[in-house]
Amino acid sequence: MGVDHAPPGGDTRTSRCHGRHTRDGAIRRMHARRWSLLLMLPWLLLAAPVLAGGTPDEKAERRASDARALVEKAVSHLARNDVNSRHAAIIELEQATQLEPDEVDYELLLGRCYYAAGYVRAAQRRFERVVDLAPSDPAGHFGMGEVQRRDWLKFLDTTSLNRAVDEFATAARLDSGMVEAWLMLSSMRIESHDTTGAAAAALRALSAAPDRAETQLAVAATQWRLGEVAEADSRFRAAIPRLPANVRERFDDIAPLASEADTALYNHLPPARRAEFARRFWAEHDPDLATPENEAQLEYWSRVTQAYFLYYNARHREWDERGEVYVRYGPPEKLDYNPIGTYLYSQIGDSRLRYPMNVLIWDYPSLGMTVELQDRVLSEYYLLPIAKGYDPDPRPEPDSLAKLAAVSTHQLRGVFPALPPRALPVRMQGEVAHFEGPEGPRFWAALEAESEPGDSLRAEMVVMDSTEHEVMRTSRALAPSACEAGRFRVADFAGELPPGQYRVGLSVRAGARRGSERIELTVPRADSTLALSDVVVTCGVPIVMGPVVRLDPNPLARVPADAPLSAYFEIYGLEPGTDGESRFQYVYTIKSRARDARVWLQRALSPRPATPSVEISRVESNEGGLRRQFVTLPASELPPPGRYRLEIVVHDLVSGRDATASADFTRLSPGS
């Protein structure tokens, strides 16, 4: 029905009345419809279940069916394993959890999807929901453990670390067969410095899955940290070959530790020769050549195991720079996340645009080294800084490293302790010297170790050739030192070696106490020209028994304040004169080796007087070309206490040739 309008120029009053009558009719019709609806209400209430889709049970079944269909679609999307499919799966799972908010499995699956996609807080809420709905479900606690573990790795908050330990422990307690929970618990306990607890968790993982290589790794790493060296070595060697190829490469790869030249050579070798190259690399850096295990390699494998559990991305088959630094230098002694004062922006190329980033600071004060790691795309993937004026690759300070009992690889790209964990150090010092014998070159090695009453220290010596193969091994008990019998015990060894380069390993052990040292030895090729052996500072005058000379070891070359300086060396190739005798002149010079530790300005403004040198010269005659020479200088002729060098020059008066040798020693102050 249309609406009437007043004609132009018509009576406006008539128009208003006509409009009022029209509105009144509309109001009457509206009231009539309302009364009709009220009369039909009882019938609508009776028919509501049918109109709405069924009874409450039928509606619940329909929601459950729709939720199952959504989850099935989400699972099929997840199987495609791409970003768009994962995003679609998350949307479908969100809808499913809205339809079925109390379904634990749906909440758990959505939480895992959130976690994999990097939505950590959303994942945490879902895992918390799972724990609320099913407190005894281990999967919810495991998910919470993963979230807290990720928080610890990102923010370095010890609260997150402790909560991760608690959640993984709860999951493992609720399901003792959950291997992943035991493995994560073991690695987190290592981070919280609970080695005993980590070992217990690793053993439970091994019990749950004895044939799985990762459980073997976890046990081996904790055995090493507990000082069970032989057991760790055996288990590592059994587990590593059974790992997937991409993981096994991490244990076999020496590139993080090797110099650029070594890495280039290694990469150009055929596979058959790479194994030999790696064997020689590890043998060269073995801290204790006398033991059947390589302590540096075991420490490296232990670090790789922990870096694998902490930083390895299975999807990308790699870890970021955190893993690289960890395997080279071990865990940082101090660490900080976005510390105050750190510049938190990155610049790409020559662009003036700045992008926010996160920064980790790993501090190694014992190595004199601080490492900066940057997450430049806020993805928790850390890299070294981009630098033009310096090399950002971390290196320890040589002076700091010299104070440690440690072994470093080429170019200081890796550092390993000289002793295994929980070993008690024995203070020891070794020395080697070469001489010429009637059958060819000979060498002499000695060590001195601090001892206590009742000690049963035993010494072992190993000689490795230039190919890092063992050519000699012998051992013996230590005897009281002729220098200071109440405090030191000594042992010495001798043997014949052909000319070449060698590494001599000296080791002492008594239960958990042990010490070791590696010394390079060059055995020169003998000829008929004038030459001197090494100079050995001894305790007292050497004993000569025919062709055998007995030297009392004094590896630290200490000379008591009231004792003479005693040293021994040999002269070879003296040329006889017409009468059959050789004649030579020798000059002994003692020079100070003391360093003025003051700053350069103090040294310049107030120079300390130089310690005067001591020089002694004599002319001797000898039968034949070999001379065994003893040096004995009484205490009254020696300079004051300090560090000195004994320099020897021998001049053959017949041939006119010269030969030189030297040895350092320390003259002690009275009462020291």
Report on the architecture of this protein.
By secondary structure, the chain is of the alpha+beta class. Among the domains are: 12-46; 244-422, no CATH class; 424-526, Sandwich (Immunoglobulin-like), CATH 2.60.40.10; 527-672, Sandwich (Immunoglobulin-like), CATH 2.60.40.10. Helices cover 39% and strands 25% of the residues. A hairpin with a 6-residue loop joins β2 (345-347) and β3 (354-356). Mean pLDDT is 88; it is low at 1-23 and 37-51.
Brief account:
By secondary structure, this protein is an alpha+beta fold. 39% of the residues lie in helices and 25% in strands.
Mean pLDDT: 88
Distance between the termini: 124 Å
Shape, principal axes of CA atoms: elongated
Helix content: 25-40%
What's the multimeric state?
Answer: single chain
What fraction of residues sit in β-strands?
A: 25-35%
Structural class: alpha+beta
How many DSSP E strands? Answer: 27
**Using only CA atoms, what is the Rg?**
41 Å
**Biggest sheet: strands, sense, closure?**
5 strands, mixed
Low-confidence stretches are 1-23, 37-51
